[in-house]
Amino acid sequence: MSTLTRPEGTRPEDLHLSRRGIAAAVFGGYAVYALSAEAAPTRTPSEGPITETVQLPARDRPVPAFMARPDAPGRFPVVVVISEVFGVHEYIRDTCRRLARLGYVALAPDFFARHGDPSRVSDFDKIREIVGAASEPQLIGDLDAALRFLRAQPYADRRRMAITGFCWGGAIVWLACARFKDFKAGVAWYGRLAPPSPGDFLSEPDRSWPLQIAPDLRAPVLGLYAGKDQGISAESIEQMRLALIQYRKRGSEIVVYPDAQHGFHADYRSSYDAEDAKDGWNRMLLHFQRNGVGPRPFG
Fold it and tell me: What is the pTM of this model?
């Protein structure tokens, strides 16, 4: 059984994946390193939404992104979906399809395309190498490319844009809502808040972390966190709560699920908690709606 309980993935001692598990992950399109043998992941029907891989106009090269959107005329609200360290694998694609069936244009950029495909790697040291190669300037540049792409599409409503992300991507949500005025709302699922200790994964001093950029938030962020997360301390969560109050970031809040583990929304992991995942999903949709990024009836 695989258990991911840390914000940027699992340490080797946390996880032992069988050959059967690796084969199942590759066949199903899920992250090799993280798929639980006991998991029964959601598979949203592909019928209905339009799904495709698009190319984002980054400055150095086109960046692929998975997109799902309603198959209907008109302009629709946008949700940019930021993956975990495992990249744009089937769980992220399914999240996009779920959003599209609700009336959103969902776009998941592949931030790791320049460096490798972490979803197919079973060695976490290699995953760290791929993820660590994606610098903060590159991430900001790719997000800018995603926004430029979306602004140019006749089906995307540039006035109604939100962002959500999981694990590694959860931290990026906070950063994006501080750097880009386009986003009207963000939802961060168990993203690290405080900088890692020196020498730890992603501890380079030139990376920004949510606690550091809290004063700069331009859009309200809903943080969804796990009470039993081994990598995100209760202290850092409380510090972020106080920072949101101190800097008067109205509309931003943090919700903690006391009995949940890191990755509780990820239905391909053993840490998945169906009840908390459903509650968090509903809170996310409500947060979007409250901030003007709700879908309108269509079809």
Answer: 0.89
Question: Which residues, including other chains, have CB under 8 Å from residue 270's CB and lie 6 or more apart?
Answer: 1, 2, 3, 36, 38, 39
Instruction: Report yes or no on 6 lying in a domain.
Output: no
Q: Which of 79, 95, 1 is nearest to 41 (CA)?
A: 95
Phi, psi angle pair for 136, to nearest 5°: -60, -45
Q: Would 299 be classed as within a structural domain? A: no
User: Is 246 domain-assigned?
Assistant: yes
84-130: pLDDT as tens digits: 999 999 999 999 999 999 999 999 999 999 999 998 888 889 999 99
Residue carrying structure tokens 């994006």: 176
CATH number, domain with residue 51: 3.40.50.1820
Phi/psi at 77 (nearest 5 deg)?
-65, 155
The β-bridge partners of 162 are: 79, 185
Question: Which range marks the domain in which residue 40 is found?
Answer: 12-290
**Count of domains for the chain:** 1
Catalytic residue positions? 167, 229, 262
User: CA-to-CA distance for 160 and 104, rounded, in angstroms?
Assistant: 10
CA 222 from centre of chain: 13
Residue 295 lies in a domain: no
Element spanning 97, H or E = helix 90-101
Tens-place pLDDT, residues 11-52: 443 443 444 444 444 445 766 666 554 555 666 666 689 999
Bridging pattern class, strands 221-226 and 105-109: unpaired
